[in-house]
Amino acid sequence: MPPPKDVVKIAIQMVGAIPQLIDLQQTKPLASVLKDVCDTWSLPNPERYALQYADGRQTYITESNRRDIKNGSILRLTVSPDQEADRLYAGILSNNVDVKTDSLKKLAGLSQDVTFAQEFISRNGLKQIYSIVEEGNDTGEMLAHTLKAFTELMEHDFVSWENLSTVFIKKIVSYVNMNAVDAAIQQLSLSILENMVPTSRLLFELVKKEVTLDRLLTHLQATNAELQLKAMALLIALLLSATDAERRDMMDYLREKNLRQFIHKNIIHSSEPLGDEMAHYLYVLQSVSLNLCEPRMKTSMDPYSQEQRDLLQSLRQTAFESESEAPAGSFSHERRRSLCAKEFRKLGFMNNSNPAEDLRRAPPGLLALDNMVYFSRNTPNAYSRFVLENSSREDKHECPFARSSIQLTLILCEILHIGEPCSETAQAFYPMFFGQDHFFEELFCICIQLVNKTWKEMRATQEDFDKVMQVVREQITRTLSLKPTSLELFKTRVNALNYSEILKLRQTERLHQEETLAVPVLELREKLKPELLELIRQQRLLHLCEGTLFRKISSRRRQDKLWYCRLSPNHKVLHYGDVEEGVQSPPIESLPEKIPVADMKMLLVGKECPHTKEKSSGKQNKDVLELAFSIVHDMEEYCLNFIAPTRYEFCLWTDGLNVLLGKEMTSERTQTDLDVLLSMELKLRLLDLENINIPDNPPPIPKPPSNLNFCYDFSHAEQ
């Protein structure tokens, strides 16, 4: 008798027959299992049949995936993939429009299954798909099914995108460029082109040439949200596949067309909620745009470049215009050099005789010079006020404009992650970025004035420079965390967060830290920990019961496919399955796949996960490594792989799974939540001791008295 793990209790259905309840022996060949099932229903030729899941994606059962079958699974006896592929291939060739349409519709559904796809492609089925598209005789519903089937078949990577003919590609492009085309066909065509662009330079150039940015902008302005999303996806694919020069040209053109303002008004502030996919594309667009600053950021100033020297001189001339207007002949060469050095010192350059030396550090390189020039040209009054105001202060108390600008540029680059590759999963973008064309430069203009304001509030000297910049960094990061919707709102909030407010926040945090470090408080913390950790465990399990929407991500592109996973209310089974876009919280009955918690053996995270080992280990996948985890089940043979949508979800899921496995919660979120709960509980417990010093040691217990004669003897009183 085989061990229990090799036997699965399942039900098998067939139309018009009584279902069979069988014990599926996993060691028994699938052909033998099919023969037994067919014999029970008196069906000849068992080789013409196959088993597939009755619910969900209805995947065919093969020797390679049969171990995924769980106790209680419902399977269906159906025509084998090779027989179905032959039938549908013949149906596509039919002259009967209804037969052809039905065949294409079924093909679009079945092509998601890798076994069927392999059979259909091996029969040269893609050639027939190409013919339908290239001939262009079929339109409407039939064409939509054809494009859907093509997309699903290509997902399996059996055929290279480079094998597509120019005629086929141009036909797909024509559906995107034509106005009188069904929206569903345009969406599928945009999706096909999006998949095509990253695969080769040749295809990128062809799509870029045939689908103009103007056409994509037209689709972005459509009222159809799905069409808008697909157009944005293709735009992002083109930007990511372009060279640096091409990307800069494309972004310049999009700026001329006011793309940012359109996104800010009609997408971010639309009445419809922003979906995860669109949020990711907006993040990528922001990242690509900001990374255009990277070359300047990494380039040191060349003291022999006349263009760069002219920019440097323009800073001096704008600030000290009246002094520079004196005729050239009125000063000797030495006197003029001395005057320039003095003016550069007033501008805050550390090396006033050769200010180019201050800009040799990269990063921030020439980007700091660009910011200073932008500030001086676009806000000349604020620039002159900054420089002249500090020129009149005592030497020790003047705020160095150039030195502050260089350091501030570096801080902004670090905060905005300029020079870092785009994340594959991130959705965090700044809404105010899309409300302004010259976002980085305008942000610098606000923040450099903040530096001067904070410098005065701190009554700082040159020795306090690093402290001031540290406060400014804190002001900027705290304000950005509030996600202001415009630069004006950012300016208002960051200026309201003055030095005294920062001191109050720091003092509150310090007092909280000090009061929690007293020995009696530490002892109380330790006593409260078990109860609060149990509360966190319950919260994690509750979150798993509510479930989370996960995305499937391939090495080729960010996928549109979604799946949902949730824990049963009795904490005994994990249910999961594919869902459609827009489904928020599917009922547990609609999730066909399941894993008993008792079968879970181990939790893997990061690089240990099998689905991260399949990917390249480049910097672009760093974020995927930080969000990846896997559940090992069935004697360490099979894994359910996850990529969390956010770090927050990653922490909650890994904690919850560790609780189910009887292990400690190890995420950083656990410590954060525990600290918050302990802080609240301690404050409530110590409320009556406010402004009372708590001694580190308990008061000494007095010695027992020499005699107890002071006690009253009731026995004598009774007598």
UniProtKB/TrEMBL annotation:
- Output the superkingdom of the source species: Eukaryota
The species this protein belongs to is Myiagra hebetior
One GO biological process term: cell motility
Q: Which Pfam families match?
A: ELMO_ARM, ELMO_CED12, PH_12
Q: What is this protein called?
A: ELMO3 protein
One Gene Ontology term of the molecular function aspect: SH3 domain binding
**InterPro entries, alphabetized:** ARM-like, ARM-type_fold, ELMO_ARM, ELMO_dom, ELMO_domain-containing, PH-like_dom_sf, PH_domain
Name the gene for this chain. Elmo3
Please list the residue ranges annotated as the ELMO domain: 307-480
Which keywords appear in this protein's UniProt record, sorted alphabetically?
Apoptosis, Phagocytosis, SH3-binding
Give the protein's function. Involved in cytoskeletal rearrangements required for phagocytosis of apoptotic cells and cell motility. Acts in association with DOCK1 and CRK. Was initially proposed to be required in complex with DOCK1 to activate Rac Rho small GTPases. May enhance the guanine nucleotide exchange factor (GEF) activity of DOCK1.
